[in-house]
Structure formats: structure tokens, C-alpha cells
Write a structure and sequence with these properties.
The strands form eleven sheets. A nine-stranded antiparallel sheet has the order 36-37-38-39-48-45-44-41-42. Strands 23, 24, 25, 26, 27, 28 and 49 form a seven-stranded antiparallel sheet that branches. Strands 3-2-5-10-7-8 form a six-stranded antiparallel sheet. The longest helix is centred in the middle third of the chain and has 28 residues, at about 615-645. With about 1100 residues, it is α+β, with helices and mostly antiparallel strands. Helices cover about 25% and strands about 30% of the residues. The structure holds zinc ion (ZN). Degrades free oligosaccharides in the vacuole.
Amino acid sequence: MGESSQYPKLNFEPHAAKIQNIALDRLRELTAGGQYSSVNLTSMYVLDRESDSKYVGLSVYSVPNLERPLFDEAIKGEFKPTHKGASFGPSWSTHWFKVVLIVPERFHKYGRVEFHWDANNEGLVYLEDGDPVQGLTGGGERVEWVLPKSFLNGKPHTFYVEMSCNGMFGNPDGDTIQPPSPDRYFDLSTADIVAPNMEARQLNIDFWILGDAAREFPSNSVEMHKALTVATEIMNTFKTGDQESVLACRQIAQKYLGNKINTADVYNSDLRPIVFATGHCHIDCCWLWPFAETKRKVARSWASQVTLMEEYDEHHFTASSAQQYYWLETRYPKLFKRIKAKVHDGKFQYIGGSWVEHDTNMPSGESLVRQFLLGQRYFQSRFGKRCETFWLPDTFGYSPQLPQLCRLAGMTRFLTQKLSWNNINKFPHTTFNWVALDGSQVICHMPPSETYTAMAHFGDVKRSVTQHKTLDSDETSLLVFGYGDGGGGPTAEHIEKLRRCRGMSDTVGLLPRVHMGDSVDDFFSRVEGKIINGIKFPTWYGELYFELHRGTYTTQSNNKKFNRKAEVLMREIEAIATYASIQKKRYQYPKKDIDHLWQLICLCHFHDCLPGSSIAMAYEESDKMYEEVFTMGAKLFEDAAASLGISIIPKLGSRPVAINNEQWPRTEVVRVPKDTVITNKQVAETHNYALVSASGPGIARVVDVKPTSAVSATEVSFGIFVLRNDKLQATVKGGHITSLIDLTCDREIIPQGRKANQFVIFDDKPLYWQAWDVEIYHTESREEIPDGKVTIIEKGPLRAALTVETKISSTSWIKTTISLAASTAGAGSYIEFDNEIEWDENMKFLKVEFPVDIYNTEAAYETQYGIIRRPTHYNTTWDAAKFEVCCHKWADLSEHGYGVSILNDCKYGFATSGNLMRLSLIRAPKAPDPNADIGRHKFRYAILPHRGGVTEEVVRTARDFNSPMQVSYVGQGYDDKLASLVRLNGAPGIILDTVKRGEDDKDIKGEEVLKDRAGRSVVLRLYESLGGKASTIITSSLFVKEVWKTNLLEDDLESVDLMKAGANTTFKITLRPFEVATFRLLLG
Ligand SMILES: [Zn+2]
């Protein structure tokens, strides 16, 4: 053999093995800017460019007063000549450009001619007829619009560019989350006709992905070395300015990327993909920009996507939030029509089923229901089908009831990824069954690339396996790519990169095989199929607690207060309007107005609004929305009440009453105006007090206070005050409760030597995200606020009260009214704290403490339709991470037989550490709103000692505390029909939470009419509040024909057997622990 071998005998040509790091470093030289740009590929991207005013005629209308007119109005403005290089501003202003373009003849030979526009801010190109076609994001990111072929004829063509003087992330002054600069100006640096060198552009992307393979594949892999060899060959082949060499280089790239990467055909292989990429664009409804700007961001972002779909057959795009579609529909009808067509083609995929991508920590149960009801009804009415996947990639933690509510809203899947931001523990699953408090489950997927704004990098595809935590069950995953947060979405570059990734997987392997073209629902359907076929996935029970952004339970506290008050108000409006519409022929149920108010409330649930993480401008807008809710809401309530003969103001011969909107007996002290004639009253400074009592739902009447239940306030020795009724005795010194005795149990609540209602202040300097985060170390800076000055203001017999004036600092103070009401039979007594605060601090956190003589390793917190139990200790890092948690109307620490609840009327942040209960009151972050929470606030909280653990007493008292009975007036002959409309008789844990009219009732048409349903119906939503299977008998004086158990969308699911039909209809229901159940009573 040796004799005949071709192997040369002699070698006089030395060849060095590759020095790997140098060979890798060299790859930068082909496409980098800077010193190589005149001699590398970047010098070849443009074949020709023209910006002379002969060809690009520019005139501008600068809109006054930071207004944002729509196209039809804007083009009526006075346009004045302008030029490339001119400067436009200030921040948030709008400038409309009329562009008259003549494409010079020398460009007509090119297959593709583009218009490039870059002012380093956001823009939108409109055709002459007002159709928006291309979003522009500036800063080199998305600057081109491909000119229609019809423009290449040497004639003038007109189009418009709407310039918004803000970037994708608003107008930050340096650091992104710092308050926006009001005075930014933007130079129009580019307004050019450009003939691009498409092959040079494509080679750039070939080489990018090839280089990534060389850099990111394991250095001991064959695939890495092959990538480096091919990339080096390209570098050695490329000759600056030589188009033939570009084509040759692209041929070389195919050795690694395959020969199908120039079209969508690359995805047509029979090799099984495991990473499913979907284009997406996360558009925050407000954040570092106002809501008003978002309305335009939606148009810019989605216009670009529709245009991109024309060019890329595989491009599929997913967008959530019915509100954003609704904005588009009403403001940009032409674009909406084109999107509708793409929805029809399956390319533009609506998702989420909710009105916006909302917070899920703080909205009430009914608020979450309305997100789905408004969202699903909108999608169904516009596109014919509901969503199957709930989509919240960016929200700050997830309520344990979401799986139940999703299932009840017709969705079986859930996508998020925010838990990848946890800064203590790593969440252990990628795809799993997430189980609600009642046992309902959804499939949850958290894309392993750990982002919803992937740039479709090689690394994103790679991490889809390397960071996948559920490979034992299923190796598939979603890759969600495209510019986001401030809008944008995928670019051509992203789609081209994914083609190369796929080509590479099919040619050399190793990289997970990515696919484009399936929908998110296709992905979930396959996973669902696997589960149905017996493949087990991990389970996660209870809340998906987010280990970051814990300050969002407290920041922008007025916004949170408005939310709570709006939720309470809507419940009252819907109930009374329902009764009025059934009872009074002339009263029309205000369905459109109610829908409108819920739309406003749901918009404000957006995950940067309610959590408090937006700029000041956004809160000016949300304050206006809430103002509308309260003004219109009050009117709706008054109208409905008036139709039933109940008046908010006294009339001649009327008597004062109150409405009990709950199912249990209530006796409460109410405020009555001075001029109301009333015998049994306690006189106070600006008003009187009366005791009203109702044995159940309906009208509460004024009653006498019994001497045994009277309350007193006394100064027992200098500076020591005692409030007492026959159930509680509180000793107050300097504004602190030094003793609280439950007289019925002979039990002291406050540990020896400790002080309850102690205000404490903390340094509040998180690691970065000021408005968002309070960090674990803040407790180390605890400082007690000194004693305040105490004065008795009310001495009974109905209410006894002290005021405490406390100085927090040289700039802040708090005035607290500590009160105790006369005790009432069958109901618990609590000490109430009604606060007015003037707050002006810098990065401080005010809380109030209640040390209690109770021992338990778990505390309980109210959440939507249920209870979350969380540790009071820090055994593990998972426990310690919950140092600040979200509660709704109450938090409770109970041991066997006895407990203490802290109630609140508008707060959400809480911490229970050992036996110390701490309610979070107010923060002072300086970014992104430098004045967040500075100023005057009012809020109430209370301490409720009680027998047993969490029982109906806690749940009911907290509800009553949040909607105290209000005095109103009826005539002498008033017949109270409210009392018998709906009555519950059974397990006390079942709460009747919502009474409303049926969405599709023919007589009350609202915004979305989906189906005409004959007859009138009343919808009752109930839930089991304590965590145990429970039954109740429901009786109604309405003439009921049929009762249906429905889902949240009011689809009839099962017929309910009536024990008695017709007048005084009676039926029995049984609920699982923490089940939410909706019933539709079809009236005869
Ligand atoms: Zn977001």
C-alpha cells in the first residue's frame, strides 16, 4: 500500500493549527462598525442613496399643546417647508410630515427601493388616503419602508409620516426608569431614498448566525469547529466592493446553513421541530409613556407586522389585550380591517382572552372575572371565536385562583415568564399543571428562553433546551420574539435569523430545531394531547408568588384606593340596577354605561398602572378615568335607587334608612346629616350618629342602642385613655394600643410590654427598581415613630373616639382617629383607625405594626375568592422570600381557638413575621414618578380579635368594613322588596358576591351583542370563602322559570333542579372549597 499512496512524501509548506481565540475574535471584522467599516461588508449594504429636496420634498405641521390628532384632522394643519437635519420637540409633541417623493430614474432598475426615516423617535407612515402602513422606531432599529412598485415611475408621490417625540421607552433622561425629560428634541437625521444591497444584507445574517455557532456551541464539539472553519472561509473569500465575492460567500455559508434559508421553504422538512417561535410585541398600556401614546404604539407596531407578513410567508404574530384591538378599531379602521383579514388567514393571532394584561395580585375576584368577560366577548364579537390561552408574560405574580377563573372563561392554557426574574429562588418547572385553590387546573408554560422579547438569537433557540426544566415530560417549548414593552414587534432580521437557525439544525444539527408558522394554541394543543394520553407533567398548587416587585402592593396608593372603591361601587350599582330593571318597567338597566365603567376600571388594572410602576403622566390619566367611574357611578346608583323609591337626600316626610347589600344581619353606626330629624342619635361636631339594623338583605332601620352595648371613652390617668364596650377594652397611650382585652373571652391580645398601632418607618432603597421593589434588607433599618398627642373627641353611647396627632418627620405627619362602636349582638367588635396623612419623604416606607399574643407558623390572607396561607417564619429561602406579600381586605394570624385579623379599606401590602403583623401603608420611590405618593392620603384599617380561626366573622366583617352602610331615605309607605329578591339560607361561608343582569338579555343591549337570548335573566355569582365544601338554599321572590349553572361567560352549563318554581323560587347549590359559581335565573 505504502508504495501506491497519494499521500505526499515530502512537506515544505508549514501549516499552523488554528489559534482558536484569535480565529474567533477575527470574525468580528467582517460586519463590525468602527475602524473596519470602510473595508468590510457594512460598506456594501447600500447600492444607492438620494435625499436631495428635489426628490424628497418635506413639509411639517407641528401640532400645538402636545395634542395627538388623528390623520383626518392632522392633514388639515398648516404644513410648512422643512428639511433633513431639522430638530423637533419638545418631549411628547407630535409633528406631521407631508413627504412628496420623486424616485430618480437611476433607482428604477432596482427590484427594491426603500424610504429610510430616522429621527431617533417613533413614527408611522401613512399612505395619502390615511392608511397606516409602516411603524418606525428610530435609532437605526426600524427605519425603512419598502416603497410600492408604483412609486418607481419618476412622478411625485405623496405620503405622510407622523412623528411622536418619544422613543420606544418614552423620554428617559439617561437611566431608563428615571422620570422622563420634558424637553427632549430630536434631529431628523435620515429622510432618504435607498436602494439596498439585499445579498450583502443577507450575508450579514448568514455570518451572524454562523459566528454565533462558532462562539456558543461547546468548544469541544465538532459543530463548533465546523462553524469556525466555514466562517473563516467566508472571511478569506470576501473582497470589499466585490458583489461576486458576496455571492460566493453566501454559497459557502450554505455548507453549514443548508440551501433553503432564502425562503420559508426552510421549514418544510420532515425533521421534527421542538422550539416553536411566535412573533410577538409586548405593548404596555402605559408605563414610561402615557396611555394616550399607547393608542399610537398599537397602530405603529401592528401596521409593521401586517406589512412584514406580506414579505414573509411563515410570519405569525401574536397580540393580546382586547382594549388595544378596540383602540385600533375605533381610531384606525382601515388598519383594523387589514388585521381582521390576517386574523382570518390565521397569521395574526389574538390571544389572552382578557381586556388588558392586568395585574392579578390586587384586582378583586369580580374584577378578574370582568377582565375575561370583556375580553372574551370582544374577541368573539369581532373575530368569531374566543381565546383558548390566557397570556400574561409580564405581570408581577399570579393569583392562586387564576386557573379556576381561566377554566370558567373557556381557557385551558396559561403563558407567563416573569418568574424567571425571581431574585431568590429559581422556579423549578417549564411546562406544568397549575392548580387553583378549588382544584381546577390549567397547563402553564414558561418559555425557557426566559423572555417575551427575544431577539431571535441563536442563543435564544439554544436556551430553549438548555434552560428547559421539564424535559422529562416534554422537550417542546415556545420562543416568543420581537421588540416589546414599548411596542415594535419582530423585524425582518429576526425572521431571517430564525430561517438560518432552522437551516443549521437540519444541516449540521446540535441546535434545537425551531419552527415558524404554528400558533401558540397549536403548541398547547400538542401538550394537552400528551397529558390526555397519560404523560405526566409536574404540578404546582397555589399562587405563583413573584420574588421581586413586592413594593407594587403599596406604590401609588391613591390609585389602589380608587380601585378598591370602584370595585365596591360597581357591586352596589349592578345589584340595585338589576332589581330596579326587573321591578320597574320604566327603568332601563344601564348596560352600556356599566360596560364602559368596567372597561375603565379594567384598563387601570394594567400591570404597570395598578402596581404603581408608571410615570406621573399615566396617573394623571388614570385619575381622570376613576373620576369618571365615581361621578357616573354615583349617578347610576342614585337613578336606580330613585326608581325604587330610595333617595340619597332627605325629602319631605322621608325617614332615614340604609341599604344592606349583604346576606347577613348587620347593625352599624352610620353618619346622619345634622338636619335629619332623628330621636336616637349621638351628636357629633359636623354630623350625628345613628344605629341602623337589618336582619338580612334589604333596608336597615334606625334602632335604639341598648345601654349594655354602649361604648365609652375615658382618660383613666394622665395620658392613658380607655375605649370600652361590652366586648372590647382598649388602653391607648401616645396613640399606641398598650392593651386590648377581649372581655367575652377574658383574653389580652397585646403581648406584655408591646405596642399595637405602632407606626414604623424604613429606609426603602431597593437594588434598582424603585417603584417596584422593596428589598429583604429594608427591615434592618426599622425606626419607631414617637408618641403622638391624644384627645378624646367622642364619648358614646354609639361611638367613642380619640384623635392622635403624630409627627413622622419635619415634613410628614399623620392624624389618626381611633374609634370603637357600640357592640352589636352576633357581630364582632373591632378597633378602627381612620387616618389622614401628609407625606413628603424620600425613599422611605411607612408601615403600622400589631404585635399580637398569638402563635402560629402560618398566617392567612384574603385573596380573590379565597384564602392564601403563607409562612410566618423564614426557614427556607422560599419562606424568607415572602417577607412582603399581597392581601386583600384582611390578613389574619390565628392559633387554635382564637385569632386576630387586621382589616383594611384600600391597602394590599402585608407582612407577618412571628407574632408581629405589619400592614404596609405608604412608600416614597422617586422613579419613574418622582412625586409618587407625595401629598395627602386617607385610609382606614382595624384590628378585629375573634374566637376560632378564620371564620365567616372575619370574611363578613372585612366586607362590611369595606362597604359601610350609608344613610339614605324612603317615604313613609315604602315597601321593602329588596329583602326578598335573593336570600341565602345555609353554609355561612358562601358569599353572594355579584348580582347583575344577563349579558345577552335582549332588553338591555350593551357594547357587545353576541346572541339574542329570549327573556330577562338575573345572574348571581357566589363563592365558597372558607375552604370547605358547602351548601346553601337560594330563594327568590322573582318569578323564575329556569335556573342554569353557567361559566363566567354566562354560557349555560347545567340546568339546576328547582325545589320550588315560579314565585318564591327555591333551589339548592353545593360548592367545592373556594369554588366560584355563577347561576343564571331566567325569569318568567
Ligand atoms: Zn409589561
